[in-house]
């Protein structure tokens, strides 16, 4: 056992097997180029499984964790700068955080010789760490003139029951990994790095299905059992970058956001007891898709386009006019699109005996006013799924582009 503990993470990087190759292909297709196979066998001559060996890149045009394939474990945190802390302290903090994220994403111990050893023996496990700035960050650092208008407050929605203590924040971090200990290791290291400069405002923990748990790669399911994410924009689409990322040609005070994106984060509680009382047929009509495979009620497979005009023998629309899939479809919202990349959550049983469970909804877009807001407004006016959801927390964050070699995240803002 002592011998195993002495094996550092950097010596434990293995080769990618068949399942890992599929993950690499998906990562490459995303246009972000975020995945690479970690090289080298472990100290005892055996290779890591594909899950442990997959590595996301810290440096690049975009930050990792946006187009990266869904990971099995996630942590979301918001921090507020400490009283009296300003731009100088924020700059030092982002330097520390970036150094730690760079090392951990490569499967190495945290910098500074203070690694806790939580993730010893593990490879990178697709770890991603993504950083963003909230609306309040700019006033506290004297950078109000560089605050994007896209960070203006989201409108209120009728289904909102938002807890301000679990919403917003100066700084935001998204952690994702295919190994729970690797994810927690990053969480602990970044929390310690904050030191006296910032304090945790809120934290949320999530999960997805583990890679390899299904016979073939497939779209994830949420806690309602529905295939969730079918309608996501695809990186292969010619307008994907325009919809999801701020263009490279951005100029003026917000030029620092070139290659970045805006993340809307919502804690959406699912009223599972009520949902599970519905017969399967009614659940499918609420969604507008078959539960078994995610295919539209109008037929075909999961990826078949919705036939929104198809009528049934009874003379009614096959996909009801208030079905979630219909209302959220881009063609029903002037082409509005966002890249949804959520985690599920379960935080125990509420005092009323119902599960405190649901979706940590995270969506990415070049402009929230053209992505999240119009779709949510439409859903707010008559989505059949709304009675089974409760929006309990919300945040909006500007996520800058990925750092170049030698840069830290946010450098183009903080040193401009």
TrEMBL record:
SUPFAM superfamilies: Dimeric alpha+beta barrel. Residues 219-402 form the Dyp-type peroxidase C-terminal domain. The keyword Magnesium does not apply. Residues 290-312 are annotated as: Disordered. One of its GO terms (molecular function) is metal ion binding. Binds 1 heme b (iron(II)-protoporphyrin IX) group non-covalently per subunit. Its cofactor is heme b. Involved in the recovery of exogenous heme iron. Extracts iron from heme while preserving the protoporphyrin ring intact. This is Deferrochelatase. It comes from Streptomyces purpureus.
């Amino acid at each position: 056992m002592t011998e195993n503990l002495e094996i550092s993470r950097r010596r434990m990087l293995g080769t990618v097997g068949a399942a890992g190759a599929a993950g690499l292909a998906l990562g490459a297709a995303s246009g972000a180029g975020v995945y690479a196979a970690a090289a080298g066998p472990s100290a005892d001559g055996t290779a890591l499984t594909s899950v442990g060996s997959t590595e996301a890149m810290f440096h690049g045009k975009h930050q990792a964790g946006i187009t990266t394939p869904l990971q099995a474990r996630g942590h979301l945190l918001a921090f507020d700068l400490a009283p009296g802390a300003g731009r100088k302290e924020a700059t030092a903090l982002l330097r520390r955080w970036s150094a730690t994220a760079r090392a951990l994403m490569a499967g190495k111990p945290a910098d500074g010789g203070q690694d806790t050893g939580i993730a010893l023996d593990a490879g990178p496990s697709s770890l991603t760490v993504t950083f963003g700035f909230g609306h309040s960050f700019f006033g506290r650092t004297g950078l109000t003139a560089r605050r994007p208008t896209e960070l203006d407050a989201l409108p209120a929605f009728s289904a909102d029951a938002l807890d301000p203590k679990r919403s917003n924040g100066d700084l935001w971090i998204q952690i994702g990994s295919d190994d729970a200990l690797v994810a927690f290791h990053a969480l602990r290291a970044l929390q310690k790095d904050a030191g006296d400069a910032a304090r945790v405002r809120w934290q949320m923990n999530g999960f997805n299905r583990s890679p390899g748990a299904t016979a073939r790669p497939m779209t994830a399911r949420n806690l309602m059992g529905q295939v969730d994410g079918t309608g996501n924009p695809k990186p292969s689409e010619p307008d994907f970058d325009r919809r999801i990322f701020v263009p490279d040609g951005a100029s003026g005070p917000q030029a620092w956001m070139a290659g970045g994106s805006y993340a809307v984060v919502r804690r959406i509680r699912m009223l599972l007891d009520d949902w599970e009382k519905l017969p399967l047929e009614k659940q499918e009509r609420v969604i507008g898709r078959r539960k078994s495979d995610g295919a539209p009620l109008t037929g075909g497979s999961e990826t078949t386009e919705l036939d929104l005009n198809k009528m049934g023998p009874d003379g009614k629309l096959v996909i009801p006019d208030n079905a979630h899939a219909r209302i959220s479809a881009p063609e029903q919202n002037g082409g509005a699109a966002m890249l949804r990349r959520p985690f599920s959550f379960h935080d125990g049983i509420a005092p009323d005996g119902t599960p405190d469970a649901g979706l940590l909804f995270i969506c990415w877009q070049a402009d929230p006013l053209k992505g999240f807001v119009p779709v949510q407004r439409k859903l707010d006016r008559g989505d059949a799924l709304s009675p089974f959801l409760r929006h309990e927390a919300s945040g909006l964050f500007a996520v800058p582009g990925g750092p170049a070699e030698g840069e830290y995240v946010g450098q183009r803002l903080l040193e401009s």
